[in-house]
Every structure is written in structure tokens, then in C-alpha cells.
């Protein structure tokens, strides 16, 4: 079983693009893959039904990827607040039960987080607690901005103190020609000031929501070390081994 938790360090990191592209890549490489969203805030209504915009995008990329959620909440506030607005309390045990059920029927499960490891789900239950409960390896997705440099170092060090299993960092929406100098040095900074690594860069794509899924997969395979992301040797990528 290959497991991964994808989260972000700053808002608007567009991590769902990374989640969807990773899932499509693993599915294309022969792994029966699913994407699980424990809590979706900002749910959208379509023909009288609530939908997860993030999971809808995953399905647009690859209709064969199974997607699941535990909670759909209309408000775009943090899950704790969004649930309270609908007179609900997010149940930790329900989320853990859902995860265990999904895990039993798939080879690769990618969990898409909300808005950071300290995001509150319920009293005494944060995104970080969910990660620790299942000992999931974590990938942080960041945008190539100056503010991301310091925030990334601080968040990684905090996560390490908390005992999280950090797989590494993926830089999203990376444009070599317009990238600030500070961001270009980020791999070296992360190596020197934390105990983790940059797993790769997902290059900038114009109008990404209408991009050919094969282009997303090609972007992953050319810019991100997917074997390090999932900590596995992939036969299709190593035909001579």
C-alpha cells in the first residue's frame, strides 16, 4: 500500500493540481489509485447536489481515479468553523474509519488536506492529528514566492518537532524565467536548515484546468522524483532493473 498526505504551507498553493497530477501519474503507471478528501470546505451546489470542487477536478484529470470524502461543507471557512455554521461537529472516528475502509481496496491512496497541518477540524482534532494517527508521509506543496521561503522552513521544523513523517516539498507553478532568486535557492536552504528535501518542481501551465491530462503527467515525470514522493521503485520507470 502506497500512502501520501498532500498539504500546503500557504493559502492558494493550488495543491489540488499536484494531488490530481500525482494520482493520474500513479494510475497511469499501473497502481489502482484513489484520492481521499476528509473535509471539503467551499463545496459547490450542482443540480441540487453538493460537490467537492477539488475532487471534481481530480475526475476531470482521470475519470478512473476513485474519489471519496467524509464531509462536504458549504462555507469556505476552516473546517471547524464551517461545520459549526451547519450545526455539525466533525467526527474524528468517522474520518479514520472512512480512511481504513478506502485503504483496503486500493493500491495507492493520496489524501488531500485542507489548509495546513494546524487546520482545526474539531475540538482537539487537527489535520496534524489525523496525519499522526495514521503515520502518513507528508508532502508540502508551496508556490514560488518570497514569503514561502521563511514559512516553509518554519513549518517543516515545526512538523519535525511534532514527529510527522515528512517526505519532502514540491514547488508548484514554477516558472524559471520569473522565479525570485530566493526561491531558486530554496532546495539548498531546505537541505541546510531542515532534515528534508525538495522533491521537484511542477512547471507553470497556462489555463491548467483545461490542460490535457497527459501534459500534467508529463510535467510530473519530468520535474518531480515520483519514486521519492512515494518511496517506491516503479517497474515501468526502471525497465532494465
Q: Which keywords apply here?
A:
Rossmann fold, alpha/beta, 241 residues, 10 helices, two-stranded antiparallel sheet
Helix-strand layout with pairing:
Elements (H helix, E strand, L loop, with lengths): L1 E7 L6 H14 L4 E8 L3 E3 L2 E3 L1 H9 L4 E7 L6 H7 L6 H12 L4 E5 L7 E3 L2 E2 H8 L2 E6 L3 H16 L3 E10 L6 H4 L1 H8 L4 E6 L9 H11 L2 H5 L11
Parallel strand pairs: 1-6, 1-9, 2-5, 2-6, 9-10, 10-11
Antiparallel strand pairs: 3-4, 7-8
Helix pairs in contact: 1-2, 1-9, 6-8
Per DSSP E runs of 2 or more residues, the count of β-strands stands at 11
CATH homologous superfamily placement: P-loop containing nucleotide triphosphate hydrolases
Physical arrangement of strands within the biggest beta sheet? 5-2-6-1-9-10-11
Largest sheet features = 7 strands, parallel
Summed up, the helix count is: 10
Given this structure, which CATH class is correct?
Alpha Beta
Shape call: globular
CATH architecture verdict: 3-Layer(aba) Sandwich
CATH fold assignment: Rossmann fold
Can you give the helix content as a percent range? 25-40%
Helix/strand order, N-terminal first: EHEEEHEHHEEEHEHEHHEHH
Low-confidence runs: none
| Structural class by secondary-structure content | alpha/beta
Q: Please tell me the overall pLDDT.
A: 92
Strand content: 15-25%
How many angstroms does the end-to-end distance come to? 21 Å
Amino acid at each position: 500500500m502506497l500512502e501520501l498526505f498532500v498539504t500546503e504551507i500557504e493559502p492558494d498553493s493550488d495543491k489540488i493540481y499536484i494531488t490530481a497530477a500525482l494520482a493520474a501519474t500513479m494510475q497511469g503507471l499501473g497502481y489502482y489509485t484513489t484520492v481521499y478528501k476528509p473535509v471539503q470546505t467551499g463545496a459547490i451546489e450542482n443540480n441540487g447536489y453538493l460537490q467537492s470542487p477539488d475532487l471534481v477536478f481530480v475526475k476531470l484529470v482521470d475519470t478512473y481515479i476513485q474519489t471519496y470524502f467524509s464531509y462536504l461543507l458549504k462555507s469556505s471557512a476552516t473546517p471547524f468553523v464551517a461545520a459549526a455554521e451547519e450545526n455539525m461537529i466533525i467526527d474524528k472516528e468517522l474520518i479514520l474509519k472512512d480512511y481504513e475502509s478506502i485503504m483496503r481496496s486500493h493500491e495507492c491512496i493520496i489524501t488531500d488536506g485542507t489548509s495546513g497541518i494546524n487546520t482545526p477540524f474539531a475540538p482537539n482534532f487537527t489535520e496534524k492529528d489525523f496525519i499522526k494517527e495514521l503515520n502518513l508521509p507528508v508532502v508540502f506543496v508551496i508556490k514560488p514566492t518570497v514569503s514561502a521561503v521563511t514559512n516553509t522552513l518554519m513549518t517543516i521544523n515545526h512538523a519535525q518537532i511534532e514527529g510527522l513523517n515528512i517526505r519532502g516539498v514540491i514547488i508548484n507553478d514554477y516558472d524559471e524565467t520569473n522565479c525570485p532568486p530566493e526561491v531558486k535557492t530554496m532546495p539548498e536552504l531546505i537541505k541546510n536548515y531542515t532534515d528534508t528535501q525538495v522533491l521537484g518542481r511542477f512547471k507553470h501551465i497556462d489555463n491548467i484546468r483545461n490542460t490535457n491530462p497527459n501534459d500534467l503527467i508529463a510535467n510530473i515525470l519530468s520535474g518531480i522524483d515520483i519514486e521519492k514522493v512515494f518511496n517506491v521503485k516503479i517497474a515501468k520507470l526502471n525497465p532494465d532493473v
